[in-house]
Amino acid sequence: MNAIFVGEKRSGKTTLAFHLALETSGGIIVFDPKKEFRDWPATVSTIAEMEKFLKQKHRVIIWRPPTMVMDEESGDEKRPMQESFNALAGWVLEKHDLAMAQGWDRAGYHFTLLIDEAYNLQSHAWINPRLLRILSQCRPEILNVYQTFQSVKNVNSDSRSRVSDWYLFTITLPTDLKRLEEFAMPEVIEQVRTLPEHEYVHFLNEKGTVSSEVVTDSENWFEPLDYQGEEGEFMGKEEEKDERDEFPKDGIRILDREGLDEANAKFNRRKGTPENYKGDRTRRSDRTEKKENERGNRGGKEIVFGRKSA
User: Fold this and answer.
1) Global confidence as pTM
2) Count: domains in the chain
3) CA angle, 200 as apex, 65 and 139 as ends, to 5°?
4) How confident is the model over 189-221, as pLDDT tens digits?
């Protein structure tokens, strides 16, 4: 599927695009010029780095191009952004050709290229040649291409003609609405004018099929863009198993309530809830001397905590 997501800043367009990419089972490459995707382990800027993380079976790769450099005289962007994307696009095209040769389309395998803020690679009058080649030559059964924009007027006509799905958040600017009128149904124009925050219109225009749907429940597609440490779910990487058990098979041997508090604190610490055991430790410190005096020479009854049943 080739899709375009349009919305103002913080409308949810990138979040929705990422959610739809995660809904698929294939790998995801995010072209991230604005650094929206933070702290992801597989964040790269070269093909060599990307290959290394792919060998480690990371599912999500964040491609971070160089910071934009502007020409002081013309105000145009210099070449680092384009060169960075060209390197990535070359790899995507090679991967697609390899997938075609291996019959991915018949086996149901695919991957996704998400281009955030795609205005960096096109305008109404120009489009990056390699992006156009990807949109023109790559089969949607193998490669999903998702592009996000803040304005409809920045979508190149060649890019627009190769897109089947549009996800449109609130649009009120007259120039954007006028551009939308060139290819969208009148009811779509009316829908995007009055959308509440974080709601969108899914507009489908493919092979003679034209339809639209208003989606109102943002909770169903919210995805954090910052890395959440859920590698097993997001990255397709097996979660490392902790070598230590929560409790030894023979249990933890303790003396009296004081030892039970220690065992409980240890268990809560292992669960990652420091607020539980820090408070217990503070309260214990106030009564430690009293407990030791009460224990005196009589000793304590041994308890085995956490022993597995026979």
Assistant:
1) 0.70
2) 2
3) 55
4) 999 998 998 899 999 887 777 888 899 888 888
